[in-house]
Every structure is written in structure tokens, then in C-alpha cells.
Automatic annotation (TrEMBL):
<dbReference type="InterPro" id="IPR029044">
    <property type="entry name" value="Nucleotide-diphossugar_trans"/>
</dbReference>
<feature type="region of interest" description="Disordered">
    <location>
        <begin position="1"/>
        <end position="32"/>
    </location>
</feature>
<feature type="coiled-coil region">
    <location>
        <begin position="511"/>
        <end position="548"/>
    </location>
</feature>
<feature type="domain" description="Glycosyltransferase 2-like">
    <location>
        <begin position="52"/>
        <end position="173"/>
    </location>
</feature>
<dbReference type="InterPro" id="IPR050834">
    <property type="entry name" value="Glycosyltransf_2"/>
</dbReference>
<protein>
    <recommendedName>
        <fullName>Glycosyltransferase 2-like domain-containing protein</fullName>
    </recommendedName>
</protein>
<dbReference type="InterPro" id="IPR001173">
    <property type="entry name" value="Glyco_trans_2-like"/>
</dbReference>
<dbReference type="Pfam" id="PF00535">
    <property type="entry name" value="Glycos_transf_2"/>
</dbReference>
<keyword id="KW-0175">Coiled coil</keyword>
Amino acid sequence: MTIVAPPGDAQTGPEPLPRPAGGTPQPRIPGNDYGVLDVPALGAWQPRLPVSVVIPARGGQEKLDLALAALAAQSYPDHLLEVVVVDDGSAPPLRLPETAPERTRLIGAAPGGWGIAWALECGAAVADGAVIHRMDADIVPCREHVEAHMRWHHLAGYLVVLGTLRFTPMTGTVPAPAEVRARIARGEIDSLFEPDPGPGHDWVDRLLTEHRGMRDAPSALLHRIHVGATGSLPADLLRSVGGYDLSLALGEDTDLGYRLTQAGAVFVPDTRALAWHLGSSTAMTRSAEVARHNAPFIADRIPYRRNLRTDPGRQWLVPYVDVVVDARNASFEDVRASVDGTLASTLSDIRVTVTGPWSSLTGDRRAPLDDPLLDLRLVRGQYAHDSRVSFAEAVPATSAPAPFRLTCPAGWVPGADTLRSLVERAEEDDAGLLLVALDENDSGVVAARLERTAAVARAALVAREGESPDDVIADLYGAEWLDGESWRFRPAARAYPAWASDRNREAARWRAEAEARGKEAERARRKADKLAAELAELRAAVAKGQRDVARWRGKAEERRQEAVALRRAAQRSLLRRTRNRLGRLWKG
């Protein structure tokens, strides 16, 4: 079965993917199942890639000294390991201690910025390694820590490796840097510090347990374990996603992890890459404040956080779905029907990209009604000032950082719930591609396509020359054909313009209906509160009555006991008087 896959003219199928740079395709990893790789045992392989450990630091000289001492005892070859410490405005300035790796540099953060993301970007910019290993200044790694990371990077060029943390409160006497280096070199990391009995990163442990070390974790969860502290990735991969977001004061690792997911990265949590975290992290000691601070920034950048995107009708920096409609060789009416139908979706978290030769629309003199580019001009005029719609000459390889892209042929209109339902279907099985058959003509099947951005990016990384991208996506993530009518796609002639002209009125009606239901719910809530208050009063009255009954029962019991005592006393008195009278009669 062939596919007519817009944008572009009818084709006999999707274009083959180009061979990756370097000529050799990467090894294929389905989803996040890195277990298909044959990772070597520690100490049983030959390293060849250089790595740069980048440490952002502000103050904390004592902890930095211990971190560098531990790095000086690493099993990874010295000539392949460099350390770049970035001083983010410490007062007094940081200094390099005597105990540190031979190739260690201390640089100041470049002027014009501040914060962890800025310091990391400054360090990565001067780093020489093929791999960037971000490590915090309060981390003491085990002897094989860097080696454990690097053995994975020798297997594939799109892995993100994360270390395993233990937390210590650093109570008692802190070992000197020389002692730390000696004991790390002897493999005695366990006895260096007392473990913190607190929860630490228990939530990470739960995710790893529930998803086999994240091997079967869905794409929407992967970024959550990218928490910084100790993580490594290829320098080229870091650059390809744009590096760190310098506008973020906190949450920069979560944001980067999300964008790496969309680039097709695989996340590898390695339990052998063990390290002590000196003290508790800010996210642990002030978790509620950190969550409150990060919520609006994370919501704007990470569509997977659906719980943070609950405001109806909101538009976000990164949309959940990028919908592409191609205006080439299409009528204005067909394009308008598809775009307006998409914008009326119950899933408002979308962006529409209309592709076409927009650069050809010059301001030269023309006959307005006989212009051969009239339909294109009408499309641009229709949406030029709609912030939800953008124009592009061509569609990029992926819609990153948006996690999904729906390509809809002009003249086909999705139903109100179609987008939401398709995304939910894709998320059920973490599917990479849903193909919705709409029609069939001489060129093949006309289809709409819902693509997972991460799957398309992964396919580009691992495809062999001439391979169909759909075949690769199906192999690694799964693909499914669906019926257009069942998923409520309709041709424009049957769907437009009657519903579109009433769209705002319908939206207003449903909003009014929702508000009315909200008022009813509020009245019901107040009534329930009143009933609850009355019930509380009744319970209090009953409780008081029970206490009174108990009190009067107690008093009655006291009176009964008194009466019994009096009766017994009276009986004893009567007996005594009778005995005395009988005695007198006897004597008398």
C-alpha cells in the first residue's frame, strides 16, 4: 500500500532517510530498551573517547575539594579525562586544591549571565571532550564512576547516562581530600560517609523499579529522571538540542531532559555509577517551594506535564501537537476548512503550520482577481494575524520540541475530539506513528499522519541508507493504520462551512453551559457544607446527650447506693432497738 503523505505532491511513499553523518548508522534501540546493547564489564574494555567533566560551582570550597579528590582517583584513563570547574560568581573566588585530576581547569563564568545553566554552557563551550559529563560540586563519585558512564557512550551516540546517588548528612568529622582520594582509589566509597536515613531520591527508585530501570518506560516519563547532579551525554547531542535554556534559574535539567527525549535520546540509569551527594539538595529541603517556582516554566516548555496545563484555551511556548497543512496546489477553501477544523479542536494545546511557497508572494503589480497565486494570498491573509498559525516554506525533519505532529491533507477536517483521541491512542502503547486512511486515488492512499517526534528523530539516527522512515519507526516504536471515518475525519464539502460559522457561538454556548454547571456545583457544594455543619451540630448534640445520660446514670447509681446504705443502716438500727427492748423485758 502506498501513501500520499502531505506536504508535497503525491508521492509513491515517504522519502528514504539520509545516511547519518560519518557513514555508519547507529545501533538500533527500540523505545528506551538499552538492554539490547552489550555493555562491557567495568575494567574489561578499552576506552578511546575523551570526556569533559563540567562542574558548575558557587561557593562550597570544602565540598568541591572532596569532589575533585574523588575525580583524581578515577579508573578512566587520565589522558582522556579533563575537568572544567566554572565559578559562578563565588565570594571569595574558588581555587583549585592540590588534590585534583591532572587536567583540571578553573574558569569564571562569562559576563552577561548567571546561574547553573549559564555556568554549564560556559563550561561546555570550552570543553574538549566528545562527551560532556555534568557533575555538581557536592558530589563524591566512586572510582569507576566516569568509566561506568563512558562504557555506554562507546556503544551509541545518542545515550544519556545518569549516575546513582546516595545522600549523606556529612555529620561528624569530614575526611580530608587526600584521604578521600586514597580511599576512593581502594574502592572504599561505602565507608566514606554515614548514609542519610531520609527518603533521598526514592521517587526515582520507584520509577526505575516500575519500569525495569526505565527500559520499558513511556516517552512521556523519561525526562523526569534527568535530574542533573551526575549525567553525561555526547557533546554533539547537547549542541543539537540547543544546550541549556539560559532563561531558567531552576529546572534546567528537567527541560534539557525533555528536549533530549524529542531528539531521540535513550536514557540509561547506571547503578554502577555510584556517588555520594554531600548534604541534601534544595529540591529535598524546600520541595514545595521549588515545585511552586518551577510550575509555570515547566508547564510552558514541557507538554507532557498535562497536570500543569489545565487552563482551558491557553497557548503555550511548546505545543502538544503541531498540525501541518500544506497549501501547495490546494484551494483556499480546502486549506481554510482544514485549519479552522483543527483550531476548533477540544485539544486547544496545538499549533498549526501552513506550508507553501510564501516567499513567492511579492508586492509586485498584479491583477488581483486573476493572480495565479491568489489562493496562497487568501490563505496568508486569512491567518496572518492569528498567533496560533505560522507559515513555513517547508516542514523540518521533526516538529521538536513539540512531542507530536499531525500532517493533515488540505480539504480534510478532523472532528472536534479527533486530535485528543489520536494522541491518547498513541500514548497508550507509546506508538511512534498512526496513519489514518482518508481516501484512495490513482496515486495511492491519502492519509493523515500522527508522528511521535522522538520516534522520527530516532529513525533518522539509526536508519540505513535508502530505508523507509516509516519502516524504521514501526520497528522501533510501532505503527498502526486507522480508518478515517471512525476517527471522524470528513471532507471539507461535508464539514464546512456550516459548523465553522457557528464555531464561536458553539464555544460560547458550551462555555455558558459549563459555567451554569459550575454554578450548580457551587450551590450543591454550599448546600453540602450546610448539611455537613448541621450534621456536625447534631453529632455534637448527640454526644452531649450521651454525656448527660452517662452523668445522670452515674448520679442515679450514687443515689441508689446511698439508699441501699441508708436502708441497711435503718435495718441495723431497728434490730438494735428491738434487741434492747427484748433485753429489758427479759430482765424485768
